[in-house]
Automatic annotation (TrEMBL):
Pfam families: VTC. This is Vacuolar transporter. Gene3D superfamilies: VTC, catalytic tunnel domain (3.20.100.30). InterPro entries: VTC_domain, VTC_sf.
Length: 281
């Protein structure tokens, strides 16, 4: 039985890498970090936004504080598999994530207005431990925080689909601690859910390019700093949702008003997944 972490507070630094930089960083990790138990996983995220996409517009203005709401799945979950409804906040460079895990059906019901506890009780996860986690006091408290977010920004609707293949690395030695994580996202694509008939996902980056993200609660170890210098990898403010939003049609071509309901079909995940299951990276 795999549990999940529902709260994160850490520094997350992104790097846009080309193929040679990616290979150099993978080589630098040898002996210090290795892929975690999940290996490479297909991640599918649906971002919710207002009808005029005020949330991503504000985020791109780089304010001191910003927040997003998304539904995230790993692999290709079906109706009774676990997905995560997550608020992602960023304040002064520190990322805070609050999320609840429940079945895909429960998540859709919840995002369509059904109270969180009722949705989890009506559409429970088949694993009793997972089901208990979804209704634990801590999860219910996080759901209340999500409720406040939704009420503040209502109405919300599916805005953007972002998919990628993620490989997460964790330390193999105690010297680097337990909090360091490095993820590599490849094959990043997007689909504009504001389109009347969303098209097939489009590539977000040029062929061979990807995104590396270093996640740590404290300073980077010296060996990692040297590795970044050696391959000339520099921090980037790259946002998948933001980059996809900029690539979409001009605002004038988007509908001024969009229905707030979250259709379950918008959250059916692709069948070409590498692996499914919850994870913390």
């Amino acid at each position: 039985m795999t549990t999940f972490t529902d709260v994160f507070e850490r520094k997350e630094v992104k790097y846009r890498l080309n193929a040679s930089q990616h290979d150099a960083m993978i080589a630098a990790l040898a002996g210090r970090m290795a892929p975690d138990a999940f290996g490479t996983t297909r991640i599918v995220s649906r971002y919710l936004d207002t009808p005029d996409r005020a949330l991503i517009e504000r985020s791109l203005d780089k304010p001191l504080y910003k927040e997003k709401l998304r539904l995230r799945g790993y692999g290709a979950p079906e109706a009774h598999d676990r997905v995560f409804v997550e608020i992602k906040k960023k304040y002064k460079g520190i990322v805070y994530k609050r999320r609840v895990g429940c079945s895909l059906t429960a998540a859709c019901a919840y995002l369509n207005g059904m109270p969180y506890e009722r949705a989890c009780a009506r559409y429970p996860l088949p694993d009793p431990v997972m089901a208990a986690e979804s209704l634990a006091p801590r999860s219910v408290q996080i759901a209340r925080e999500i409720d406040v977010f939704v009420a503040r920004h209502a109405p919300l609707r599916p805005s953007m689909l972002i998919t990628c293949d993620r490989t997460a690395y964790a330390p193999t030695t105690c010297a680097d601690g337990d909090d360091l994580r490095i993820t590599f996202d490849a094959n990043i694509s997007y689909c504009d859910l504001f389109e009347a008939q969303p098209a097939t996902p489009r590539p977000l980056l040029q062929a061979g390019d990807g995104v590396m993200e270093i996640k740590a609660a404290g300073p980077f170890p010296l060996w990692l700093v040297h590795a970044l210098d050696a391959c000339e990898a520099y921090p980037s403010s790259f946002s998948k949702y933001g980059t996809a939003y900029r690539a979409c049609a001009p605002r004038a071509e988007r509908p001024a008003v969009a229905p707030p309901r979250v259709p379950a079909a918008m959250f059916v995940l692709p069948n070409h997944a590498v692996k499914k299951g919850g994870r913390c990276a």
